[in-house]
Design a protein that fits this description.
Blueprint (H helix, E strand, L loop, with lengths): L1 E3 H4 L10 H11 L3 E6 L7 E11 L7 E6 L5 E6 L9 E6 L13 E3 L2 E3 L1 E3 L27 H5 L4 E5 L13 H11 L25 E3 L5 E9 L9 H9 L7 H13 L3 E5 L6 E5 L5 E3 L5 E3 L5 E4 L4 E4 L3 E2 L12 E8 L1 H10 L5 H6 L7 H16 L10 E4 L7 E5 H8 L5 H10 L3 E6 L2 E5 L11 H12 L20 H16 L3 E2 L5 E2 L1 H6 L20 E2 L4 H11 L6 E18 L7 E15 L4 H16 L6 E4 L7 E11 L2 E9 L1 H6 L5 E8 H11 L13 E10 L4 H11 L3 E10 L8 E10 L8 H19 L2 E2 L3
Parallel strand pairs: 11-14, 25-28
Antiparallel strand pairs: 1-10, 2-10, 3-4, 3-6, 4-5, 6-9, 7-8, 12-20, 12-21, 13-20, 14-17, 15-16, 17-18, 18-19, 22-24, 23-24, 26-27, 28-29, 29-33, 30-31, 31-32, 32-33, 34-36, 34-37, 35-36
Helix pairs in contact: 5-6, 6-9, 11-12, 19-20
Length: 806
């Protein structure tokens, strides 16, 4: 957005203040000023020259050879194609090296064999209008060689403001809003903006235009004013110069008046040709409705677009752009002025969809103050009376209001403010800042203020923290003392769960060469069905990322199998693991939000390992891995593998088991059934296990830290025992009994399992390494033999175990 310094000076006296100081103050306290534009820079190397003679170009019928007097630069030869160039004219000449407002760079050229040392310019080439029928002819009193900017009297300085820095400040989208800020920053008096109230006799005319607002949520206020006996003509120089300084082209006096009022107040206005309005209907567009807008583009509307219509058709897109059918033109004799407040979200959506981010739309989408409409109406009338003295105001403004002006007060405790700011700002200074910004300040006691918010700040001042921001930015961020916070810095609480997870990742990655994967927390029905899993209990997503991610997962193995499928062709063997959450279709402990009584789905944290091998034997290998992994993770706890008949849909019937740790079932281990593996495109033998990670952490916490035990001073005795027993007896059952038989048995290791033709079909041989050791003395062979004899007897009684003798 461009802001004219000359326009600002009408509301606040800036004499004696340098433009760089204004730029720096605004940037530090209010908005980001991107650059300072001196208006004359647009016409650098453009001068006033006089046409001395013209002649026909020898090689082109439509071109002329023109000789001009360029003052100190002498006489220059120019090739010109304008039909209206004549000897004796004063014309604008762009010299070689000039860059015109439209971006055209003037270079020395040879045109059809004739040298040209510049360009005589038309209005549109100089950004001064739309006329391109011929060159711009200047006043005869113009001085030869004079800078063109000086001739035009363009001495304004423009501040280019970054729109993003005022996206939450609708009050700053007009010159008066910026002037109000400058009056506070430089402690200057602000001129009151009080256009005269329009006075119309009640009994002059009764046939006023009717206004009907169909969608009251999208249009909070609508004012229509009919003005007769309007004469459409070129705007006076002061008005066209003001518009030109901020980058707007002059169109005609009425349209320019609407634009100028918008630039002053920030409130967009629109003028319709009254002949095309039998009535005004503010409604949403009909299905497939179209409108040709002022830029000659036919735009297709939808049912969400708010429009302005007469009884037959749309005449404008509300808050965005007017229609070509109701455009002000040279034959217009009466107008209807629209000053309205449209819903910010609706205007933004429509403007974005139609690619029509107009000056009006950019202001409406910020959320304008509805009370601004009356001010803008009065200012427009004031300007029109000056531009069209014969204009007739016989009609009362038609006003439709669908809002109640909000009164907002925010309590501000000065002691609290001091803690937030980090230093004390005296109450007198706080009051001065807020009152300068037009806040109403009421003292309740020494430490408490009640702050009334002006209507134009209701959009961005909602809580007491917003008031702190206002105080600090005006007081100056650089004036806040830099002091380190005086607070005790405590280390974060230790999370056993996070520490355990890091250890799990470290052990699996470093000791067992597993690769950690991160999968989406989503699966799909086809994926589950191929694994024999019923998808009906799974939670469906209302707005899934894709058709591959439609359900919340209830197991990690599903996606790990997909990882195996995608990578099996690249590696002969794969070992992957994941730690992540699953989501069950039952209420959890966390509420959906602060206002809801419903809870989010229950979540469990799981650890899953999956391996695939070319040479098979995955079930046994994964058993060994998890046994040793748990032993290392827990510093000595052994996991038990318990056969199960429970249904794991994708598991091989003969190779599956439950995982039990410390008498608690914490998960399962199974080989993927070959037929299901084929359905899922997995070509190598695969096994997977899944552990309830939360339960694992709980067991580790309850066990407590492992105490240091000194190395025994006395030697150990090693013995091997092999028992022949029933196939159904599990290692976990017999190992427990052996370990608990005598405290001198300090270690037990299964080193061989034999099932062959030397023993019965229903039997197996299990061979163990046993270590006997005492912390008090050196054991003798006789003592160990006695213990071992008792152990053999005990195993025989419990499991009908026999000592293997072959």
């Amino acid at each position: 957005m461009n802001i004219s310094l000359n326009c600002l000076k009408e509301y606040v006296n800036l004499s004696g203040i340098k433009i760089d100081e204004i730029k720096d103050k605004l940037t530090a306290h209010t908005v980001e000023v991107e650059q300072i534009i001196r208006q004359g820079d647009n016409f650098k190397n453009v001068i006033v020259s006089k046409v001395l003679s013209t002649a026909k170009h020898p090689q082109a019928d439509k071109l002329k050879l023109v000789l001009v007097d360029a003052g100190e630069r002498g006489q220059l030869k120019i090739v010109c194609g304008a039909p209206n160039v004549e000897s004796g004219q004063m014309v604008p000449l762009a010299l070689v090296g000039a860059i015109l407002p439209n971006g055209l760079e003037i270079k020395k050229a040879e045109i059809r064999g004739e040298e040209s040392n510049g360009m005589i310019c038309a209005e549109d080439e100089l950004g001064l209008g739309e006329d391109h029928d011929g060159i711009m002819v200047l006043d005869k009193k113009a001085k030869i060689g004079q800078n063109f900017a000086d001739y035009l009297g363009l001495n304004d300085i423009v501040l280019e403001i970054d729109n993003k820095s005022i996206s939450n400040r609708p009050d700053l989208w007009g010159h008066y809003g910026i002037a109000r800020e400058l009056s506070v920053l430089f402690d200057l008096k602000l001129k009151k903006y009080e256009p005269k109230v329009l006075k119309i006799k009640e009994d002059i005319k009764k046939d006023n235009i009717s206004v009907s607002v169909k969608d009251k949520k999208l249009c909070l206020k609508y004012i229509a004013l009919k003005i007769e006996n309007i004469k459409i003509e070129k705007s006076p120089k002061w008005l066209s110069d003001r518009l030109l300084s901020v980058g707007m082209k002059s169109i005609n006096n009425i349209v320019d008046a609407t634009n100028y009022t918008m630039l002053e107040t920030g409130q967009p206005l629109h003028a319709f040709d009254a002949d095309y309005l039998d009535e005004i209907i503010v409604r949403t567009a009909n299905k497939n409705e179209k409108i040709v807008t002022l830029d000659d583009v036919e735009r297709s509307l939808n049912e969400n677009d708010l429009i302005i219509a007469n009884s037959k058709e749309a005449v404008a897109i509300a808050g965005v752009m007017g229609g070509k059918n109701s455009e002000i033109n040279n034959t217009t004799s009466s107008i209807v002025l629209e000053v309205a407040n449209f819903n910010d979200v609706s205007v933004r959506k429509t403007a974005q969809r139609l690619s029509a981010r107009t000056d009006a739309a950019m202001r409406f989408e910020k959320g304008l103050d509805p009370s601004l409409c009356d001010l803008a109406l009065r200012r427009f009338v004031e300007i029109v009376k000056d531009l069209c003295p014969k204009a007739v105001f016989n009609f009362q403004p038609v006003v439709v209001e669908n809002y109640k002006q909000e009164e907002r007060f925010i309590a501000l405790n000065l002691n609290w403010a001091e803690r937030i700011i980090g230093q004390k700002i005296e109450k007198k200074e706080v009051k001065k800042i807020l009152e300068k910004l037009n806040f109403e300040v009421e003292e309740k006691d020494d430490n408490n203020l009640n702050i009334g918010i002006p209507s134009w700040r209701l959009k961005d001042i909602n809580i007491k923290e917003d008031l702190i921001e206002e105080i600090i930015r005006i007081f100056g961020y650089n004036n806040i003392d830099i002091v380190l916070p005086k607070t005790e810095i405590l280390p974060p609480e230790k999370s056993i769960s996070m520490e355990t997870e890091r250890r799990v990742i470290s052990i699996l990655s470093c000791s067992y060469n597993f690769s950690e994967v991160y999968n989406y927390s989503f699966v799909n029905e086809e994926q589950l069905t191929k694994l024999g899993i019923d998808p009906s209990p799974y939670i469906k997503l209302l707005n899934p990322l894709s058709k591959q991610h439609t359900l919340l997962r209830q197991t990690l193995s599903t996606n790990l199998f997909s990882n195996i499928k995608l990578n099996q062709s690249k590696y002969p063997n794969l070992s992957v693991f994941e730690v992540g959450n699953i989501f069950l279709n039952i209420p959890g402990e966390l509420p959906k939000d602060f206002d809801s009584r419903d809870n989010l789905p229950h979540q469990d944290r799981k650890l899953a390992l999956t391996i695939c091998r070319e040479d098979g034997n995955t079930f046994s290998e994964l058993k060994d891995i998890i046994y040793n992994f748990i032993l290392e993770l827990t510093n000595g706890l052994e996991i038990d593998f318990v056969p199960t008949e429970s249904i794991i849909s994708w598991a091989d019937k003969n190779e599956k088991c439950l995982l039990v740790l410390g008498s608690k079932e914490i998960g399962f281990l199974a080989k993927l059934d070959p037929s299901i593996a084929t359905k899922n495109g997995i070509k190598k033998e695969t096994a997977s296990l899944e552990i309830n990670f939360s339960m694992l952490v709980d067991i580790i916490v309850r066990r407590g830290p492992t105490e240091y035990k000194p190395i025994a001073k006395f030697p150990s005795i090693n013995r091997d025992l092999a028992f022949v027993l029933d196939k159904k007896i599990l290692f976990s059952d017999i190992s427990k009994e052996i370990r608990s038989f005598n405290p001198l048995i300090t270690s037990l290791e299964l080193f061989d399992v034999y099932m062959g033709d030397k023993i019965d079909e229903n039997k197996k041989s299990m061979a163990f390494h046993l270590i006997y050791q005492s912390t008090e003395k050196t054991l003798t062979s006789e003592e160990v033999d006695s213990i071992q004899a008792g152990l053999i007897k005990k195993m025989g009684e419990l499991f009908d175990a026999k000592i293997r003798d072959f």
